Amino acid sequence: MALVVAWLTEVVQLALLALLAPFLVDVMSMAAAVLSGARMSVPGERWRQIATGWRGPCEPQGAGPAWAACALSGGALAITPLISVDMAGASLADPLAIGLLLLGARAVCWQRAFGAGCVWRRDREAQRQVAIQWRMCGWIVPVLGLVSALMAIGLPGAAGLAGLARDLHVQAAPALVGALVFAALALGVLLGPQFLDAASFEVLLPEAEGRLRAMFRYSQDLASCGWLLLIGDLMLPGLPDGATLSIPGMLMAWVAAPVRLVLVAGVLGVGMVFLRGDVRRPAVALAGAAIILVLSGRFAS
Amino acid sequence: MAVAYVRWPSAKGEIATRVLGGAHLAVCLWSVGCGADIHAGILVLDPFVAAFECLLALRSLNARPAGLPAPMLGALSLLVQPGPLQALLAGLGLAMGRSEVAAAFTGWRGAVRLVALILLGVVAPGTMLAPIVGLVAFLTFAPCEPLLGSAFLLLFTISAPAFWVPSLICGFGVLALAPRQILLSASEAPVLMALGVALAARRADLAETSLAAFEAFFLFLGNHAVRAEASGRPVLLMDSVLPGAAGFLPFWLALHAVCGLAAALTNWIAGALVVGLALGIAAVQRSRSIWLKMFAPHGLGHDGIRLSLLAGIAAFPGAFFMLLRAPLERLSGASPAGLSAHGGAFQAPGRMMTALWMIPGGDGARWYPGVATLFLFVICGLLTSGRGIASARPSMVVDSVILSVGHRGGAFSFGQRRFMARARRWAAHGRQWLGGAARYPLTAVGGRATSSAHRLALWLLLVALGLAAIGWEG
């Protein structure tokens, strides 16, 4: 029975996220638009954009990398717990693994910037973005390593996101929970416009069009959804244990999961408005706060 | 036998080299697998040395032309008891790595090497000075043959577990990541950090953590032995740090080993934070070097064996660890009975299958490499299907383009660029006048307005969020 519930949760989660991902991108851009006084897009706009592209001209040869990008992001979504910790892929939910999968999905898009037909300024802009994003990777991956170390220090024995949520039911670790909020915010700040914003992603695909572009856009939406899910699991690690839930409780959890994601998307969308430019200093400050909090928690007990 | 196939410049010699190398590998594999000690005069082959012999033989067979003198003389020197003869043989191997023997020992680097070799010959393992000698030997041999350097480092540090040794080794590992390469290159950083963590865990009697860290150490070295300078894209993908590839698991194991150390020992908390960050940086540097190689002009080559070896290590690292069972058990101080309670890797044959497809991380975490590798194979197939990355895309990527941020232009003169900038500003104004920015503009230029004045509000919001989460939980 537990196995059936675990696989059911996995399937429902993947279907839900595949449907929800473009809406989350809408939420992020809407939150940003509200604050900066720009015209707000309506929910569903991103889906419409993707559907329009899908109906456009089709270039079947280049579809392999686009599918690969979708599959890499989908793999990250499949191992990050959304609804409950009792999920088939949850034993693989390691922050480093999830982050590397999502960055791998982005790396597949990077190779589009180095195409055959070089239009000088357009492609140069794309290559510059690739260089900047490589730089940011040098900050993001260490923060992912830091998150693992923080979890080990704050709550010894909690391994991975699922283990963290499971252990928090048994033993409260307020300092770790607070520290993970800061660490997740540091991650969000570092990801910032380069990895989460749908508009800046367009620069990376200088020559893709039609269906191919729609697929790459969708892979980007899945990847941002994966980042949001990772950040959400770190910020609000209160997932229920699926094996012990009653039916109404499970329905409640399924409804609450998208709400949590929308909340995280809103926070990050707002953050992106404020934190343009050099984000490394705020990220270092946030990571430092996380370290101090978790150290205080460890030494206080 | 080790030295017999050093160099033999003919086609027959090449075949003989391969045959002899295969025999060498087989003997060492047998010794490592059975945990047998072989004594023959001054030569001693115990499982620990045999593990390094295997890796060095693999490395030597992997090189083109097969049979590099440096690893082979190094392999011979490892067989000899520590002492002057060992130092002499290792030094000879170091010198043979160069085109001229004399070139290896001139200049201040040569002087340092000579001093290191003399120390290696004089100081015995287990004494007070031994860890320093091991570290100096590593620094000497790492640019030429990292496997040999790691072997000497392990040989000289394992029997003298003073409290400062692991910290020193980890410190050197972190130092290797410095932007200027002072003593070490960045690729040796994770090896050093894994070894430091393993020694610290061994000293604290944390068998499972120590085992995970030593597994990471040997996986780093194993990947190094299989890797080649130039290879096709599938091999590069298999060698990368993507989850499921061969390069991921050692980083994962090292990270979780240091996490386990921090969970158990309070005085390793700061070290765990530093090593966790440094491992992340090392992973990014590793993947960046692979990314640059992906676009380098290359021949596809006959990489079938290499690819299958890497895929085998990636999918079934448990098999690799089963092979190295005897040295790993000896090094980590783990007895099979003590491990079986924690679901460790080495148990009775009945539970071998679990060990093959589940790897414990030393702090309670588990990883399923087979599942991840299967997933990566799907990705690899997708990437190489149709006009994927693997097809001939004439690449225009230059290292300077990737590595220098903010370098742009060069094709247009200043006047042209000034005109273009002005035109772009006019166009932006015009677009604004016509009715706002596009919803999803094609470029990021001219995106949303930012307001630095509201940063204080954002900081307050962040603090409130953190505090709310703490209060809500506690």
Automatic annotation (TrEMBL), chain A:
Entry keyword set: Membrane, Transmembrane, Transmembrane helix
Transmembrane segments: 12-38, 137-159, 171-191, 221-239, 251-275, 282-300
Protein name: Uncharacterized protein
TrEMBL record, chain B:
Transmembrane parts of this sequence: 15-32, 70-94, 114-139, 151-176, 182-201, 235-255, 261-284, 305-324, 367-386, 456-472
UniProt keyword Membrane present: yes
Source species, domain of life: Bacteria
PROSITE patterns found in the cross-reference section: PROKAR_LIPOPROTEIN
Keyword Lyase: no
Keyword annotations of the record: Membrane, Transmembrane, Transmembrane helix
This protein's name: Uncharacterized protein
Lineage summary: Bacteria, Pseudomonadati, Pseudomonadota, Alphaproteobacteria, Acetobacterales
